Amino acid sequence: MADPRYFQRQGPFRLAELAAICQIELSDPAAADLAIVDVAALETAGPGQLSFLDNKTYMDAFSASLASACIVERRYAAQAPDGMVLLHCDQPYRAFALVAQAFYPRPRPLAGISPAATVDATATLGPDCQVAAGVVIAAGVEIGARCIIGANAAIESGVILGDDCIIGAGVSLSHCQIGNRVTLHPGGRIGQDGFGFAIDPGGHVKVPQIGRVLIGDDCDIGANTTIDRGSMRDTLIGAGCWIDNLVQIGHNVELGRGCVIAAMTGISGSTTVGDFVAMGGQAGLAGHLNIGDGVQIAAQSGIMSDVPPGLTVCGSPAVPIKEFFRQVATLRRLARQQLHRGGEEQ
Amino acid sequence: MADPRYFQRQGPFRLAELAAICQIELSDPAAADLAIVDVAALETAGPGQLSFLDNKTYMDAFSASLASACIVERRYAAQAPDGMVLLHCDQPYRAFALVAQAFYPRPRPLAGISPAATVDATATLGPDCQVAAGVVIAAGVEIGARCIIGANAAIESGVILGDDCIIGAGVSLSHCQIGNRVTLHPGGRIGQDGFGFAIDPGGHVKVPQIGRVLIGDDCDIGANTTIDRGSMRDTLIGAGCWIDNLVQIGHNVELGRGCVIAAMTGISGSTTVGDFVAMGGQAGLAGHLNIGDGVQIAAQSGIMSDVPPGLTVCGSPAVPIKEFFRQVATLRRLARQQLHRGGEEQ
Amino acid sequence: MADPRYFQRQGPFRLAELAAICQIELSDPAAADLAIVDVAALETAGPGQLSFLDNKTYMDAFSASLASACIVERRYAAQAPDGMVLLHCDQPYRAFALVAQAFYPRPRPLAGISPAATVDATATLGPDCQVAAGVVIAAGVEIGARCIIGANAAIESGVILGDDCIIGAGVSLSHCQIGNRVTLHPGGRIGQDGFGFAIDPGGHVKVPQIGRVLIGDDCDIGANTTIDRGSMRDTLIGAGCWIDNLVQIGHNVELGRGCVIAAMTGISGSTTVGDFVAMGGQAGLAGHLNIGDGVQIAAQSGIMSDVPPGLTVCGSPAVPIKEFFRQVATLRRLARQQLHRGGEEQ
Fold this sequence. Notes:
Chain A is an alpha/beta fold. In chain A, about 15% of the residues lie in helices and about 25% in strands.
């Protein structure tokens, strides 16, 4: 179970309540009143706990699990242990996420402004915000309702935040406008100057960066991630994007809705990314590219040209993923032939 | 136009004033008194605005632009729309940068020390510095004139800053000396211990890191970038270097003048880099190397050996860029031949 | 010598004292009383200074060094300059590290809590802690003896720190428990939410992250490095791990003892790493993998599958290092053959 030192568990809930939360019909209506006290992984779950099976590589753990209830696709029902109540659905992980949120809801603000915060007299805060010690809120900032601002965050002049945002410790925000229900994890840097200058042997000349960063609703942005403001237009992050830690997003980048960007990926300036694009860790995109809707970019890929919608690419420079693995196999085979012919490559 | 919530535009300027700033002769001297109110990109510029053409892929936008004036190479004059006043020069982007700086100058300090800053009694600050809330300035720090120190920055004991520096929110500085007109974007970490220890199965043994970081004049260093201090000598950043976000620079690295280092590049300890070296994003350099003047390193390259002056390299391990693209083409061709011969690689 | 502005040197020491510290017998017992005032690199060392030779590429510097004493393997004794006193041992760098620590010991706390720190009444601190200005320590935090907490660090509720820890400026800690003698360099982010959510076109659904981060004794964790807390179990960092700057460690990762992870490496969620594993810079590991004890992963490698104990791997996707260099050589040869046959690849 979650360490009560850090997490306040809600519940218990009747199984029928949990089923309603994720809109699942119980396989056994007689179990509606079963008391569920917690969620847990299949291996560690015990009586009174609910788990899920999302990946059939965990089938053995499922069959051996002591969980009282489990969210699972209908086709795996036969492998369930005796006595386990099943909640059948097609997206078990999504359903489990909703149930887990019931036990461990998003933090709610403990309304109040720390006397050790510095809030400019011209800044406005909506009702029920929580502002920690060391926070600095500059002139003209507008913050919505129920936001949580973590210790030592710095919100520079004119920044706008929507409702129900969570700003982590040590975050800095400038020249940006952020939607509702956005989470920024600690150390994120939003809105600083982009990397814009004219190369000159006599001294590179800075180009003023006069755009902003606009972030849509329901985004989640990782620790120590950096998003630069636009040069002469805005850097745009669409609603519902999930961006992991240590990601770099250059000036004028536009991300569509629902993109998922794993840690340490970098997107160079002025590249436009469609909706629901997924990028693996440490991928790199050159500047001024167009990446179509639904593109998937494998980890460590290097994208040097436009990618049409729906394609999955891999490698540096990236190619369609089947071609990537064919290249890998070809090179592996040729190198082994070389070995058998003797070490002439040395 | 730039959002006035975040940017205070100067001007308007007479076109002759702007031409003088970038030392350009007007193509049409009669236009000297034309009032220019702002700068803008070709696509969005309108009457009274000045733009530039630097890349001929934007030729259509140039020909269709409503900008009143445009900085452009002389050879493209014929493609200009009727009525546009042209400022001819060989480096249009550089000239535009200077003009844009006239409209949007570098921030000037609002002199004063926030009562919510903590400044040690033995620290000295030059005239007209701006020190935000939450800043901590430790014993013996020396700060020049007209510096701007952002919210919650931490400047540890003995650090020296020149004149006209801008230190972003949440930056931390220790064991370093920084020149004039240096900008450090938020979250930069300068001067912490390098990664130095003796490997030992009984417990790795730390080697004290007793060097410093010295940063020359006119450098620009990105958000969340880390520069470690030297182990037994200093880490050196030459004058006029532009370093992007999330870059790692190891102990004892020496960068020459005017280097340009894109985001997420890492330079391992004790590598020496010449003047005007350019590195693309996510490049990685091994330690103890010598990189010659004017070398260009493509994005995602991995540098495992010295690079002579003037070379452009790519790949991991890096090779001269022509060879890299020849390798890419060769492998692509071989993999396709393989495909046509059937799937034997599986 | 180290700049006295930043470093307080101890000593001088008698050579016999230093030899005792690293358990070495002096080659010349008559030198026991030689006064050593400092450590230095071979090239810069002078009379009264001690140096070391660990890498025979520095043999010329050794033979020309003016150091009064030098730690060196016995087999290189003949190359020493006249008059240099030698301290023979098999691990010269380790021995030098111990001697250097005598001259430049780990910082000791200047006990006291800054009046500009904010410490919750329910937090407990052991004796002789040093807490800088701007530090925020939340409810229920427990800090051991002799810890140094740097300016503007944020320690969130319930965090536990052992004795003799050094927490750098601007670090943020939450949901974590940290052992003794751990150093966290500036800007590290420990314990924030992992990157856990169920993909859904209607809006990705967050999975509450209800684990912790547990860090063993004697770890050293770099600037701006991020370590996410576990989802339903804990993220574990074994004792004696050295982790460089800008490293990303995902939720549920388990690192064994004594691992060494160079800058900008990323380890994806739920990957388990054995003891004494070494990773070069910018390496990337996929999730849910098992990496055996003693594995060595070269810089920029991409690990897509389990690695058995003791293997050294390189490349993306990674292969055993001999195979990697064979592949590199094969491709180089084929591309050159292609060149000689004419530019048909274009």
